[in-house]
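Technical note accompanying the year-one report. For the benefit of new consortium partners, we illustrate the data format agreed upon in the data management plan: each record pairs a sequence with a structure-token string. No post-processing was applied to the example shown here.
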Amino acid sequence: MKNKALYYLCIVNLGLLVMIFLGKIKFLLSTGEAIVKAFIVPIIISALIYYIIRPLNIIFIKKGLSYGKASFLTLVIFLTVIGGVLTHFINYAYIQFHQVIRQLWIIAHDKKQVDGIISIIDKYVDFQYLYELTAGMVRGYLELILRSFIKIAQYGINSFSVVFFIIIIIYYMLKDGHKFKENLLQLVPKKYKDITGRLLSESDEILNHYVTGQSKVALSLSIMVFFGYKIIGIPNSMLISLITFILAFVPFVGFFISMIIPLIIAINMGYYMVIKLAIMFVVIETLKGRVVVPLVMSRSIDIHPITDLFLVISSVALGGPFAAFAVVPIYAIIKNAIITFKRNNNMTEK
């Protein structure tokens, strides 16, 4: 028993040493970072969207549409909804920006106010020095903008290519997802086909329950905070609740992070608003823990809350929000695979 424990301990230590040495090689780090940005993150986003909209795709298929037509129609509906939401918030941001510009324009054309400000500034500011300083800053910023223009263009092209890549992945996941299990089983030796097929089905069920469960929790939280902000008087409640919906996909910490912006707004509005926001947060967090999560996630993955919290916090520190979202189902799939293999080995020995 001691020799076996020592054996596994040596393997773990050697694995950690290999990871440390590989981390020292800049080429591998840069290559790994490029692979994560170009492939891993789009695949995670695609899988998230796929499991959210797959029920609609299944409905179309049951209505008699072919897989290709059903996938195309599902994707068009999803993109239309997303486009409508983005258009609404872009228009909202434009209106807010236009109001600020209009206020500044009114102030600039108020001759008495402008003359008063200039007379006050003239007593304490050397306009010649201010002009030279401003001219130098403008030249510097123009040079910076010109240098950054190519980078901005590259970033825009990369963003468009990533979005297009995600759309293509989602389409083929909807169209050919039902073939994935069969095609993969053809590569597996015959004696492992049964257990591999069972693992694939269970992994798909785990991912489906997790993504749909997190989606329902995020939607429930965003609706609750929207009405909460309306009741206590926090401005821009729709925009802030949308941020809550996006961040709530990260278990545990996402909802807390989403409260940073309303907290800053509440502090600027006074301590009374901070108290109301704190009460609202306690009520919503209680409803989330006692009602929403038990009802929505009851059929989801079986992981102890402490393990879940440790996985999420560690992955946020190491890989950011995408890693925090993906780590829980990946852990559940690995855990299920280990349990299944152990159960299969015990049955074989008997």
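Partners are asked to follow this layout when depositing records. The chain has twelve helices and no strands.
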